[in-house]
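> Could you send the UDP-glucuronate decarboxylase prediction when you get a chance?

Sure thing. Input:
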Amino acid sequence: MTPIQYVLREQRLIWFFIGIAIPVILFNLIIPSSPPDAFHSAELTHVPRRVTLELHGSGRVPLSLKAKNLRVVVTGGAGFVGSHLVDRLLERGDSVIVVDNFFTGQKENLVHHFQNPRFELIRHDVVEPILLEVDQIYHLACPASPVHYKFNPVKTIISFFNVFYKTNVMGTLNMLGLAKRVGARFLLTSTSEVYGDPLQHPQAESYWGNVNPIGVRSCYDEGKRTAETLSMDYHRGLNLEVRIARIFNTYGPRMCLDDGRVVSNFVAQALRKEPLTVYGDGKQTRSFQYVSDLVEGLMRLMEGEHVGPFNLGNPGEFTMLELAKVVQETIDPNAKIEFRPNTEDDPHKRKPDISKAKDLLGWEPKVALREGLPRMVSDFRQRLFGDEKESVGTNVSLA
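Output:
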């Protein structure tokens, strides 16, 4: 047996280690070592961009800087408020994914973004799970019109109860689950309806409300209260970044023409030369904020460091009769007012205490009713009659 044959046959273990050592040596000689911060930098690429900004910054990052290059999902983004929020997010440079089942949303509200490469639209119902890679989630999905929760007969009530409650509960659970999986910040748009027919006036966030759990409005009221509970449970139990906004009456361009809300009712009726229908004695009060004010409040809340809940509304208080007269002044001084029996569980007073939003978010509404209403009227007139000359105020800036 030659020496070479002996080594190959009897010393196989030595050759095994030599075979491992040769590629290791070659690998270290050919491929340069990584810089010390390479691994750290690689890890940061998987951290949401908003968090990366905060890690490398000192203190709070300005809203305009922090909002750059975020990937944001807006559920219900084809709706009235959602579409205006999408406008602002795209305007500041974000990439936006709208998730909407078009139950009440309209593609027409977003058509001006269809050619924007940073905009995506997905037809999807949030009661079913969805997986997206995003930094922030604005959860607006929920039909909020009284028309949709006060139908007859009983079969229809049950149907719409399922829509409202499933959207508020299952939809919120699915979006919270998505936020947890991808490390996104989650904002829930709740409502002033959580206060029910309030015994406290104005309503502060510390007030627990006076809600009828078996009333015709309860599927909406209780659904939103449950959504708030789920959001806080995820925040406390799973350390999820959560923000909660309680939205008061909002109006502006792109509202549904016949959604049953008082401002859109009055405006559509006056334009159609129909009587303005006032329920009860007309002494019930509401507070009305223009949509651009609400969008600014939502964005400040999302980018801030406070969970909430925060009241977002205009503390200017109007009775229904006063609102009807403002609509008369704006559209038709000869419009008639017609009184009808009041609806069940209609709150007598509704006015937000926004002290918390002022102090912690630096936010308060800027647009008065008599300033914002003509813009909404122009939009309604154009959609009802196609009068482009009268629609100059429709596409106003929301900045």
